[in-house]
Amino acid sequence: MARSWSTMEDFEAFLDGGGLVEVDDDMPQPYRQAVFSFIEMHANSELMGGLTERDWIPKTPGLRHKMAVLAKTQDEIGHGHLLYMVAADLGVKTRAQMLEDLFAGRSRFHNVFHYRAVTWGDQVAIAFLVDAAALISQQAVFKNCSYGPYKRILLRIIAEEGFHMRLGEDRMMRIAEGTGPQRRMFQESLDRWFWPALQLFGPDSKPDDVLLRWHIKSERNEVLRDRWVQKFVPMLQSYGFTIPAPELSYDAEARRWDVGPIDWEPLERTLAQGGPDSARRIREAADNWSRTSWVRAAMSNGTAA
Amino acid sequence: MPATASEPRGVREYLLAFADDEHLMGQQHTEWIGVAPFLEEDLAFSSIGQDELGHAALLYELILDLEGTEPTDTAVDSLAFGRPSEGYRCCHLVEFTTRDWAEALVRHWIYDTFEEMRWRLVAGSSRPQLAAIARKALQEEAFHRRHADALLDKLLASPEARERILEAFETVGPLAGGLCEPVVGEAEVIDEGVAAASTGSLLEPLQQAIGQRFGYWDSIGSPAADSQDGRTVRSADFEPLLARMREVLDYDPEAVW
């Protein structure tokens, strides 16, 4: 049964008490909008992530390897599919409107998908570093997420993302133990993808971040980013790769890695659709979408059944 | 049946043509992920692509097994990707580079319609491994067919979409006959009980199915019109496709990915 709250204070007390909001609830409009925007961006990112990977799927080296990569991309697009439905149920935009906005460059997707995968090593770096960053973020959202439908979908997404990260890790290890050209290829990929992957977490959370206050996110950006750094910096080094951070340092007493100052300008550019591959990515997605409009028109035509 | 190095050459050719068709069809589906008209279609094409690549892997394994080679992933990949182009036995339909989603859909329907018939021919094969693969594949092919049919039912009933589909059929349809072209030595396949009937025997039922689906079959002509010469001749689209499939493998032939 739909619930309602007479004041924002009541609603926030409900959230603070661990309450789960459901789609039929009469939730405050600012909360509805915030949850919607968050899920829409997640959905867009799953879809654009699939498009980033699609450039290399046909070139995957190996038959069973290609099946695994196809399955991964199918998962990513499948996540997008589920998330668009959860977002559409909030009644702010339909799925078609969300896709139209995405392809018109009017809505956002994660910074990492504004870059192009230029070698097979990039594909592996994405599966490893980017999927791991996404997984850390999603686990933190899931932990204390106040919007029930999103929390339930995240359970499945996290399980599958864990698979992807392990696939990426397995491929990275093969490369690490592989030939000179393979290792060089991956080092170059690491040079390209380390900082974008790290920036996926965003700058430090603001003290008044409503996403934290409303338990849409449960941990601060800087905490999540640090978790990724502490895990992946030593791991990559243990495989003999170099972290492309000139001011990287290790505090032996605290046993912590510090990557040094972070330049947020590249992230800001991607947020304004001005990343290195934003224009091509959005234009190609829009072109493909418009080229198949005749199919959608025929399928939605009542007389066509 | 135990692995034997004395398997007749025609049997190997037959299985190779089968495997290469599945491999290239699966490969072609990978090109349509993320650019389909609906997210549901992206998901369907990636699922169908995985099925076809899976069939190819099983068939390549069977060939290696019959040769007495251990069918490791490396051996399968070496067979799947490592032959010179004249060593491939695929038909031109699966080599063809489709230019739009309508062509991809029409090919998907034609291929899976044929595929269901071809798997039935080996479902009672004298080679038990092949019969087992066929039983698994037939379950999947039924889904593939249903998927393509459901889309075409809708699209062919809508005037604009019908025009686009039939235009795509004009391009892709003439390559359908090549699916039914046998390899050299196929008679051995029948003699050995590997398949119940020749690949050529599928031409008439395929023509009928295509006629029922698209309304006509005339433009397709005979399989001989498309000069595959026992599937030993590659089309113009094949070399670029193989180069694309091999790009990472060729980057470092010593590497394991």
Rg from Cα of chain B:
18 Å
Sum up the overall morphology of chain A in one term. Answer: globular
C-alpha termini separation of chain A: 36 Å
- Unreliable spans of chain A are none
Q: What name goes with the CATH superfamily of chain A?
A: Ferritin, core subunit, four-helix bundle
Oligomerization state of this entry?
heterodimer
Average of per-residue pLDDT values of chain A: 95
Q: Which percent range describes the beta-strand content of chain A?
A: under 5%
Helix content of chain A: 55-70%
What is the domain total for the residues of chain B? 1
Count helical runs of chain A: 12
CATH domain class name of chain A: Mainly Alpha
Pick out the low-confidence regions of chain B. none
Summarize the entry for a quick read.
Chain A is mostly helical and 305 residues long.
Walk me through this protein's architecture.
- The complex is a heterodimer of chains A (305) and B (257).
- Chain A has twelve helices and two strands, in the order αααααααααββααα.
- Chain A has 305 residues and is an all-alpha fold.
- Chain A has a single domain, classed as Ferritin, core subunit, four-helix bundle (Ferritin), CATH 1.20.1260.10.
- Chain A has a two-stranded antiparallel sheet with strand order 1-2.
- In chain A, β1 and β2 form a beta hairpin.
- By secondary structure, chain B is an all-alpha fold.
- Chain B is 62% helix and 0% strand.
- Chain B starts with 8 loop residues before the first helix and ends in a 6-residue tail after the last helix.
- Chains A and B meet through α2, α3, α6, α7 and α12 of A and α1, α2, α3, α7 and α10 of B.
Keywords:
heterodimer; A: 305 residues; mainly alpha; Ferritin; 12 helices; 64% helix; 2% strand; B: 257 residues; 0% strand; globular
List the helices and strands and how they pair.
The complex is a heterodimer of chains A (305) and B (257).
Chain A: H1 8-16, H2 29-54, H3 63-88, H4 95-103, H5 120-144, H6 148-176, H7 180-199, H8 210-213, H9 221-238, E1 249-251, E2 256-258, H10 265-271, H11 278-291, H12 293-299
Antiparallel strand pairs in A: 1-2
Chain B: H1 9-30, H2 39-67, H3 73-81, H4 92-95, H5 101-122, H6 128-155, H7 159-172, H8 186-191, H9 203-214, H10 238-251
Helix pairs in contact in B: 1-2, 2-3, 2-6, 5-6, 5-7
